[in-house]
Structure formats: structure tokens, C-alpha cells
């Protein structure tokens, strides 16, 4: 929308906002409760200095509380995409329909609306937006800033241009020059080592460095950590050499496999005491894997600097860090109150220490992926680089679900019972169950009718899988179950997508829903194949990833999909429990993802976003790989599932 904006802490005093001449204030969401003892500090005067305010999620609750309304924790959470009813005579919603699709993710809700405010949107009986038009104070419980709110951009336009009277004149060229000025000021005549993966973020970062500095100041390094895709390092070197980037390639696979780092004694321990982690190739915890990899990147980079007879303290480290990386890692650069969703390899403790010392250059830290791509085009980068599917710094290591034992908590049986009720809802309503009312309470009348229709037409089975994956619910990290769904008929994808939206809302311990290809699963696995980052495990995933992406490229649909992680899970299906056959195979997940901002997104629906025959071909070819039990398809939006499984 080309409106200049600045990100300030919530506790910025109102007089500073007034003195700096800001046109309006947007208060973003967060995981806290407005009534909590440790709720973020703020200056209540921000609501009374005459500036238009838009409070989003937590921001709406804060606004309502300050203006003497009330906020309560509801018995039912809302996590996911909902259709809400809204008052389109309200200036914030002018030009919209009376019903719109939005993303809601919250446990607390506005109960009594503050005096002077009116309700301008509702999700069933829950208040979804409030407004005091006279004072230009507006609040939305949903998130207009994300892709999953279908007309959120129009809502933001209404606020910025119709209510706050902002101007649209802040362009990518302005931001490019700001990045160059920042690099030149910070680096001066020093050298910069930039870590290049070959993805758009690190390549745009390098292009900015080359434009801002003399060529001999920039040292471009690609570190092969042993977790790259098939022939990835070779293709990265060729692509970047064509761009005129002089690249040093370092093979550090052995260093990473055996890498360790220092970690807190435990999650609860708040003392400075530390412990040495296990080596990476024996680690199963995804957060620990990410931290080891991030810190090992720095250690390898320092070794490269030493080999060039340079001193680490005299060389800056440059990274293509984006704002979503910092938000998900709960970096203080993004927010003082965010919850950790997952630690990005470019925001580990060692990186933060270097950042505090002023030794890290991150010119893209306020950018989102779509903005980086626009900047890349402005810098003249070719489209195949700009639109390349993102590939995480930790590579395939976070696409292997490592585990020593199955994940089965005390709620496993009860959650499985809830899933059975959902999958066979049309039959379940005829024989009342204690959990039936819980299922019904999470649905609207329309959703209940739709579930009844789906389960009448299709013979489905839904069950928990004994593994954990990372998700995000209520702006907080979740680390819990995957739900598998099978069908006796060919998959009806629209119905499966509906179930995938419904199930995590009813079962908050479920992060993801996958469709399991193949025959009806009669006996879901309750144990796992012990899995670590070994050469054999990585080789299997590398081949599955290569097969899936080759088929996607040949189909011509690679550009229609934003990203497609391929994941290896420690699940061995189709074993007769009476024969006590050990779990020794693994299963693959195809995770298609469509997004523009990478903060939220949806899976590609076969037959809609991608031809079903393309997915079927992937499944058929992956099944030919030795050691593969079944292939699954991730049906989960973000939230509640993250893009990556770890």
C-alpha cells in the first residue's frame, strides 16, 4: 500500500507518537492476556491523543479494557478461518459484503463493549469487531493483515486512507536506498561475510551488499551443511556465478553432523547455567536441532574468516533475515512479548550475541517475502532466483521427524474418540456419547449440516499418529499430534479440507491433519521407527524430495505453489498387531503451501490449485523408494500448522 510505517514498542509514550507526527496507530496481536500480571506495559493515553487507532486481536481487547469494557476467557477457542457477519456501513468495512472470511485465533474475547463503542462484526455469538467512529477507534478480533482474511487488504486500505487520511508514496526504491544507506554507515571500510544459501533472501541481501560496498569488501560463502537437496549446492554455485557473484563453497557436512551447542539446563531453569547438547545426529528435539545448526553456521563462518587471515572481530556477518524469522523466533528486534514458535537458524543465541555486539548486518529484517521478491526484481535479479521456492537454512534436517519413542500422552485415547465421532458424525448423532456435545459446541449450524452431509456420503476414518510436529495456536507455539484421515473411496478433497479446518478447532492438541493415501487404515501405528539424522535416513528423504519436485516442475505447476516441503516421518503402517512385526519403515508427507506473505497460507487443494494426477504421480513414484511405507498429504492451513513440520 506504499504507506511509510515504523515499528515501535507497545510502551512508547503517547507524547512521542504525537511529537513525531504519526498519522495513526495500529496495535498488533500477541499471545498475552490483558488481565495477566505480566501483560505488556503501555501508555493508555495513546487512545486519547486524537490519533485514529486500529487494535488487532490483543490490540482490540486492550482498547476495550482501557475504555472500561470487559474481556473474558471463553470456554471455546477460535483458531482458524471463520465466516463472520459485519456491519458494512462502518467506515472500516465500507465496500465489503455483509459476510466475510477471516482468520481468528484467540481464547480471550470482548465481553462487555466499552461505552461509546458498538459491535460492528460477530462470529456467531462472539464479538469480532468494535468501533467508536466519533473518536476513530476501531478493533478487530480477527487478523486483517494476513492472507487468510480474504478482504483484509481492503479493510486496511479503509483504515489508512479513508479514516487516517494517509498518503501512498513510500516505494520499494525508497526502501532500497534506506537499506544501502544503513549498510554503508555500519560497515564503512570493513569486510562483510555473507552466508548464501542460493534462496531469494540471501541472494537479495548479497545484491544489496554488492551495490552498497566495493566488491573486495564482500565475501560470499555457501556452506553445504550436509542437509542440502540432491545436487543443490552445485546448482546454487552455478546460478550465483552467472550473476557475477564470486562464491566460496565450503563442505562442512561432517562438522554439522557432529555439531553441538550450549543450551539451558532445562526449559524451566531461568539461571545462567548451561549444558552441552547432544551431537546433532543423535538429537530428536526440533528446537535443539535448529539451535545447533544456527550456531554451527557461525563457527564454520569464523573458520573461513581465519583461513583468509582475517580477524573475526573485524568482519561483519551478513544474513538474509526477514521479519517473519524474527517474529517466529521471538526476537526482541520484532517484539518484546512474542512467543517462540520456532528458533530460526539466523536468530540463535550466538547470533543474538553477535547482534548485540553490532557485528551482524541484516538489511532485510523489516521485510516480508513478497517485499523481498519485489526488491529482488528492482535489483535486476532473474525471475528464477526471485521466485525460487524457499528452502530453510537447516535444510532437510528439519524435514526429518526424529524420534526415539512414540508420542502418546494421557489424552491420546480420548482425542481418538473425538476424532471417531467427527469422522462418523452422521452415525454418532444416533447413539449419544459424552463427547458428542463437545464436538457440537465447536460448530455453527451450517458446519454441523455440512459435516453430517460429508460423513453420510463418505466412509472416513480419523485417528491420531504418535508423532509431534510444530504448530501455532493463539499466537503461541504448539508441539503436538498429527491426525491421519483415510477414506474407503477416492479422496473427496473439498470435504477433506473442511475436516482439516474443523479438527484442530475441536482438538487443540492436534496441529495438523493429513490424508493417508492407500487402502483404509484399520490399525493405525502406535509405535515408531527410531529415527535420527543418519546418512541412510537423509538419503531416503533426499530421493523423495527429488522425485516430488521433479514431477512438480515437469507438470508446469511449480510456479503455482509457493513452497513444497517433503517430510520423512518415523511411521510404519500396515502391520498386523497380532504378529508383533517391528516398526522398520518410514512414511513421507507432501506439504504443498500457497501464500504471498509466508505468515499465513493454505495447502494446495488437488483438483483445484494443482491437478490431482500430479499428486497421484508423486505418490506412486515416492512409494517405489525402498523403505517407504505410505505417502501422506498435509491438509493443514497456517495456522494451526506452520509451513515446516519442525
How would you describe this structure to a colleague?
With 646 residues, this protein is α/β, with parallel strands linked by helices. The protein is 32% helix and 20% strand. The chain contains 19 helices and 20 strands. The strands form four sheets. Strands 1-2-7-6-5-3-4 form a seven-stranded mixed sheet, with helices on one face. α19 links the parallel β19 (586-590) and β20. α4 (172-187) crosses α5, α5 (200-212) packs across α11 (369-378) and α18 (535-555) runs antiparallel to α19 (612-623).
List descriptors.
globular, six-stranded mixed sheet, 20 strands, alpha/beta, 19 helices
* Order of strands in the sheet with most strands: 1-2-7-6-5-3-4
Number of strands: 20
Separation, N- and C-terminal Cα atoms: 33 Å
Structural class: alpha/beta
Form type = globular
Number of helices: 19
**What is the overall pLDDT average?**
91
Amino acid at each position: 500500500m506504499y504507506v511509510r510505517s515504523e515499528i515501535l514498542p507497545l510502551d512508547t509514550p503517547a507524547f512521542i507518537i504525537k511529537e513525531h507526527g504519526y498519522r495513526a496507530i495500529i496495535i498488533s496481536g500477541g499471545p498475552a492476556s490483558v488481565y495477566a500480571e505480566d501483560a505488556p506495559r503501555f501508555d493508555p493515553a495513546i487512545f486519547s491523543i486524537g490519533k485514529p487507532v486500529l487494535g488487532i486481536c490483543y490490540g482490540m481487547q486492550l482498547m476495550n479494557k482501557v475504555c472500561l469494557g470487559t474481556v473474558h476467557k471463553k470456554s471455546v477457542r477460535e483458531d482458524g478461518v471463520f465466516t463472520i457477519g459485519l456491519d458494512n456501513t462502518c467506515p472500516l468495512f465500507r465496500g465489503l459484503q455483509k459476510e466475510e472470511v477471516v482468520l481468528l485465533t484467540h481464547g480471550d474475547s470482548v465481553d462487555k463493549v466499552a461505552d461509546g463503542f458498538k459491535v460492528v462484526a460477530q462470529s456467531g455469538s462472539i464479538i469480532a469487531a468494535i468501533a467508536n467512529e466519533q473518536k476513530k477507534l476501531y478493533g478487530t478480533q480477527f487478523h486483517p493483515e494476513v492472507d487468510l482474511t480474504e478482504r483484509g487488504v481492503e479493510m486496511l486500505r479503509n483504515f489508512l486512507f479513508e479514516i487516517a487520511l494517509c498518503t501512498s508514496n513510500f516505494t520499494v526504491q525508497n526502501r532500497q536506498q534506506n537499506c544501502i544507506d544503513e549498510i554503508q554507515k555500519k560497515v564503512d571500510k570493513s569486510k562483510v561475510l555473507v552466508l548464501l544459501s542460493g534462496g531469494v533472501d540471501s541472494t537479495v541481501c548479497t545484491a544489496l551488499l554488492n551495490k552498497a560496498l566495493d566488491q573486495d569488501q564482500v565475501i560470499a560463502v555457501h556452506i553445504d551443511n550436509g542437509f542440502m537437496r540432491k545436487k543443490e549446492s552445485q546448482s546454487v554455485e552455478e546460478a550465483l556465478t552467472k550473476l557475477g557473484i564470486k562464491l566460496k563453497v565450503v563442505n562442512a557436512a561432517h562438522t554439522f553432523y557432529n555439531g553441538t551447542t550450549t543450551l539451558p539446563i532445562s526449559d524451566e531453569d531461568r539461571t545462567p547455567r548451561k549444558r552441552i547438547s547432544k551431537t546433532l545426529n543423535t538429537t530428536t528435539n526440533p528446537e535443539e536441532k535448529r539451535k545447533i545448526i544456527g550456531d554451527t553456521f557461525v563457527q564454520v563462518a569464523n573458520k573461513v574468516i581465519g583461513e583468509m587471515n582475517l580477524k573475526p572481530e573485524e568482519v561483519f556477518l551478513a544474513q538474509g533475515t526477514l521479519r517473519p524469522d524474527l517474529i517466529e523466533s521471538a526476537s526482541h528486534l520484532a517484539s518484546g512479548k512474542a512467543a517462540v514458535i520456532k528458533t530460526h537458524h539466523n536468530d540463535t543465541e550466538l547470533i543474538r550475541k553477535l547482534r548485540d555486539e553490532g557485528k551482524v548486518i541484516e538489511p532485510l529484517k523489516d521485510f516480508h517475502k513478497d517485499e523481498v521478491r519485489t526488491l529482488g526484481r528492482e535489483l535486476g535479479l532473474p525471475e528464477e532466483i526471485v521466485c525460487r521456492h524457499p528452502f530453510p537454512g537447516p535444510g532437510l534436517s528439519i524435514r526429518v521427524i526424529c524420534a526415539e519413542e512414540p508420542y502418546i500422552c494421557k489424552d491420546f485415547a480420548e482425542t481418538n474418540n473425538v476424532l471417531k465421532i467427527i469422522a462418523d458424525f452422521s452415525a454418532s448423532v444416533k447413539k449419544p456419547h459424552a463427547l458428542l456435545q463437545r464436538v457440537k459446541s465447536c460448530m455453527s449450524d451450517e458446519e454441523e449440516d455440512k459435516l453430517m452431509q460429508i460423513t453420510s456420503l463418505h466412509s472416513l476414518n480419523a485417528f491420531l499418529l504418535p508423532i509431534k510436529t510444530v504448530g501455532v495456536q493463539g499466537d503461541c507455539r504448539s508441539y503436538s499430534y498429527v491426525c491421519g484421515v483415510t477414506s474407503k473411496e477416492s479422496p473427496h478433497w473439498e470435504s477433506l479440507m473442511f475436516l482439516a479446518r474443523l479438527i484442530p478447532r475441536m482438538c487443540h492438541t492436534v496441529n495438523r491433519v493429513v490424508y493417508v493415501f492407500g487402502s483404509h487404515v484399520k490399525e493405525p501405528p502406535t509405535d515408531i521407527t527410531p529415527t535420527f539424522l543418519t546418512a541412510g535416513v537423509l538419503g531416503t528423504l533426499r530421493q523423495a524430495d527429488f522425485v516430488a519436485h521433479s514431477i512438480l516442475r515437469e507438470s508446469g505447476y511449480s510456479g503455482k505453489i509457493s513452497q513444497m516441503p517433503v517430510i520423512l516421518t518415523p511411521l510404519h503402517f500396515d502391520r498386523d498387531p497380532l504378529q508383533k512385526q517391528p516398526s522398520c519403515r518410514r512414511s513421507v508427507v507432501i506439504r504443498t503451501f500457497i501464500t504471498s506473505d509466508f505468515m499465513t497460507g493454505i495447502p494446495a487443494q488437488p483438483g483445484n490449485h494443482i491437478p490431482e494426477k500430479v499428486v497421484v504421480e508423486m505418490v506412486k513414484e515416492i512409494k517405489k523408494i525402498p523403505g517407504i511405507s505410505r505417502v501422506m498429504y498435509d491438509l493443514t492451513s497456517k495456522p494451526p500448522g506452520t509451513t515446516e513440520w519442525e
